[in-house]
Amino acid sequence: MQLTLPKFGYGCWQLGSKGTDDYWGLEFTDELAAELIPAAVAAGITYMDTAEGYNNGDSERQLSRSLNILSSESRANVIVGTKILPNNAGDVRNTVSGMLGRLQVSCLDLIMIHWPITQEGMAHFAGNHKTEDGGHDYATSDMDAVGEIPSTQTCFRDLMALQEEGKIKHIGVSNFGVNQLKEAMATGCTIAVNQICYNLIFRACEHDVLPYCREHNIQVLCYSVLMQGILTGRYAALEDIPEYRRRTRHFNSATNPKSRHGEEGHETLLQSTLAQLNEIAKENNIPMSDMAQAWPLHQKGVSTCIIGGTKMEHIKGVERAGAVVLSEDVLQQIDEATMALKEAMGSNLDLWQGVVDGTDTGRCN
What is the DSSP track for 164-214? Predict the structure, then answer.
């Protein structure tokens, strides 16, 4: 059975957020979720993307409550994707049972392994990473707390067994590089999707992952299409970007306590690239955010862009972007404007974990 996804999905990382000290800087209430989720579905954003690691399962719980208020007809059109932490890959059956309970369903539409099942992939979720509000501190990583690394082969075989039992429809991965995709596929598992970070200022997947996914009919789902607001044009200067959102490899790790990649960053090149993109959007009378959301869908192999939203205007922005058709001339301008940054950032698919002293400590290969 082929998995058919809409052009845009709704990212649910912010659901269940506890307050101002949490990553998104707000408390995401049931009232807000009950407003935005139905609005997204009505706008044709019928893929919901969540994970057990989003706010300790509270994202899944809040999403379920929001979907329950939909009409039966609208709910039938919704596809929910969720993700298993690599740390729980050795206990797939119990993990899936918990997901089914939190989402209040008898079968998961799509389940993905959130990060590669490696020490690096598990380190960020091992140990104590709590903020004052009880949320997850995404600035920390604890290699020493990882413990035993689960078997990738056993994990995917267990997922296939649950698929045979009717508890899972489709199996996918997230943030997997080519070697990790090969390892998963060697089990005989059909990988439906690879969800990766892909946007105008982070094109790492184009080096090898995107071509491999196209070759093997693996749909690519893009997250951080707006680079957490950086590609909306809202920030006049790089220093105006919130500290948490400046922890990527674009920025010098030494100047940001929330960063852990250990690289020098590419801030000057980033600044000039953003200026060129803003000029392209202005010359073609396209809002910067619309251009950024539309661009990945013009790339062969990409099926869905995942957009997070905390306001109704974000939903309306997706509706506008869905109607944007970028000409070959505009696509060429964008390619030329972003090529230098693409080459500088390299092929490391992990936006937050870098290469230090020539050693690849990234999680994706």
Answer: HTTSEEEEEEES--HHHHHHHHTTT--EEEEEEE-BTTB-GGGTTHHHHHH
Can you tell me the distance from the alpha carbon of 57 to that of 195, in angstroms, rounded to the nearest whole number? 19
The token duo for 141 is 């990583």
Please write the tens of the pLDDT for every residue from 114-147. Answer: 999 998 888 888 766 666 655 566 666 677 778 8
Number of Cβ atoms within 10 Å of the Cβ of 6: 18
Q: What is the pTM of this model?
A: 0.93
Domain-embedded: residue 217: yes
Helices (DSSP H) in the chain: which residue ranges? 30-42, 58-67, 72-76, 92-103, 119-123, 152-164, 178-185, 209-215, 267-283, 288-294, 312-322, 328-345
Most confident of 14-18, 22-26, 212-216: 212-216
Q: Is residue 189 part of a domain?
A: yes
148: amino acid identity, one letter: E
**Domain presence at residue 102:** yes
| C-alpha–C-alpha distance, residues 206 and 349, integer Å | 10
151 in a structural domain: yes
Count of structural domains, the chain:
1
> Rounded distance, CA 335 to CA 89, Å?
38
CATH number at residue 171: 3.20.20.100
Question: Considering the chain, what percentage of its residues have pLDDT values greater than 70?
Answer: 91
